[in-house]
Amino acid sequence: MLYASKTAAEKRKDLREMLASDQIRQFPGTYTPISARLIEEKGFDGIYISGAVLANELGFPDVGLTTLSEVAQRAGQIARITNLPAIVDADTGFGEPMNVARTIQEFEEYGLAGCHIEDQFNPKRCGHLDNKNMVDLETATKRIKAAAEARRDENFLIMARTDLRGTSSLEETINRIKALVDAGADAIFPEAMKNLDEFKAVCDAVDVPVLANMTEFGKSELYTKEQLAEAGISMIIYPVTLLRSSLGAMERVLETIERDGTQEAYVDQMFTRSRLYDLVDYEAYNQFDTGIFNFEVPGKFEA
C-alpha cells in the first residue's frame, strides 16, 4: 500500500545478490507504476525503464529530447510502488561527466537500483537504428568513471551500454567493453548483437554480468531465456513490449467503438473492475481507513 515494503537500499542489495548467482534474470520494461505492480505479481525478477519508452509516452521519438528531471521523476514513481529492483535507461547521462555524476545521485534519491549509460553522441539514436554516431573511447570511459565515483550507495548498479557493434567490428566492440569494465562498469549492455555467438563472445570476454536486449523488430532475433542463458547472459530486458501491447489494445478498442458505436464487443478483453481493484490493493486502503477513522473526537461539535 502507498509504497513498496522494501527500501531502495534493500532493493539494490537484492539486485546485486541476484546478479551474483548463476541464474538468468528477466526484467520486463514498463512506463507506468500500475504495470510495475503487475510485473511483480507475475513473478519476474525486476523492472526495466526504457528511455525510448518514456520519450514515446510523451509523444517524442527516442532522440535525446527527454530531460533528467522528467526521466528521474517518472522512474521514481515506478520504483516506489514495487519491491522489485528497477533499472533505468540514462541515455548518455544527460550531459558531460559532471552531469553524469548528478544523474547517478538523482536516480539514487528517486529509489532506482541501477542505470545504464551509453556511448553515443547526444542527440542519440535508438540502439537498433542505423547511422549512429559514437563517442571516442576516452569520452565513453569518462562517463562511466564519473558515474562510479558519484554514487553513494555501493550497491547502486552502474551499467555501461555500448552501441559500437552497429558501426564497428565485434573485436573492436569487445575491446571497448573491456575498457568500460576497467573504468568501473558493474555490468555490460552490448546493444544490437547480431547472433547468439556474439552474445557469448561478450560474456566470455568479461567477468561482469551481461545484459541482452530482446526488443521486437530490432537487430537481434527474439531468443528464449534458455538460449540466452546458454550463451552466458545474466539479464534480459523486454523494453518496449508492454508499450507496444497496450497501444495495440488501445487502437483495437478505439476501432471497435468507431465501428460499432459502443465498446461492448471488446469488454471481454478488458481488465474487470474487480481485477483492477485487486491490483491497486483497494481492500488494504479500505481497511486502513476504517482502522484509523473508527472513532469520534470528543467535543468535535461543541462551540
Care to give the gist of this entry?
This protein is of the alpha/beta class and 303 residues long.
Describe this structure in words.
By secondary structure, this protein is an alpha/beta fold. The protein has 12 helices and 8 strands. The strands form 2 sheets. A 5-stranded parallel beta sheet has the order 2-3-4-5-6. Strands 1-8-7 form a 3-stranded parallel beta sheet, with no helix packed on it. Helix 4 (68-80) packs parallel to helix 5 (97-109) and helix 8 (196-205) crosses helix 9 (225-231). The mean pLDDT is 93.
Helix content: 40-55%
> Biggest β-sheet, characterized?
5 strands, parallel
Shape verdict:
globular
Q: Runs with pLDDT <50, length 5+?
A: none
Radius of gyration: 21 Å
Helix- and strand-based class? alpha/beta
Order of helices and strands: HEHEHHEHEHEHEHEHEHHH
Q: Would you tell me the overall average pLDDT?
A: 93
Distance between the termini: 38 Å
How big a fraction of the residues is strand? 5-15%
Number of strands: 8
Give, in spatial order, the strands making up the sheet with the most strands: 2-3-4-5-6
Number of helices: 12
